[in-house]
Write a structure and sequence with these properties.
Elements lengths: L4 H13 L3 E5 L1 H6 L12 E4 L1 E4 L1 H4 L1 E4 L11 E3 L3 E3 L6 H17 L19
Antiparallel strand pairs: 1-2, 1-6, 3-4, 4-5
């Protein structure tokens, strides 16, 4: 188990009450958006507009879609964002990010990754 569900639920409620949350993009997020017409730069200021929990597999996910990209939403893991220092939740969010990244590394994945699941082919008789 990567996340403590009770702690994550409490953190999500705090985040929802404090939206929008100012953040900056990490290099991982900037790399992931290279395929979009409007690219996100490392350190670019964004705002978390909504949050949801994707379980142990995905963790806390954030909608950080810039206003000019409404047709192509940007949803990313909280671990791919840096909360602007001075925000009331900055320390709590950083603690969640550190703990989650450490636990993922212990499991051997090193860093968060994405997975594509393909449906099984039907068996022919």
């Amino acid at each position: 188990m990567i996340d403590d569900y009770a702690k994550v639920k409490a953190l999500l409620e705090k985040m929802k009450a404090g939206l929008p949350i100012p953040v900056r993009a990490t290099a991982d997020l900037a790399r992931a958006t290279k395929q979009f017409p409007t690219k996100i730069a490392v350190g670019q200021e964004l705002a978390i507009k909504s949050v949801f929990y994707m379980g142990d597999e995905g963790g806390i996910m954030c909608d950080v879609t810039p206003p000019d990209m409404m047709m192509t939403p940007i949803i990313c893991s909280l671990t791919h964002l840096v909360v602007i220092p001075g925000h009331p939740l900055a320390d709590e969010l950083a603690a969640y990010q550190d703990a989650r990244t450490r636990k993922l590394a212990r499991q051997g994945s090193g860093r968060p990754m994405s997975v594509t699941i393909k449906p099984k082919k039907k068996w022919r008789r």
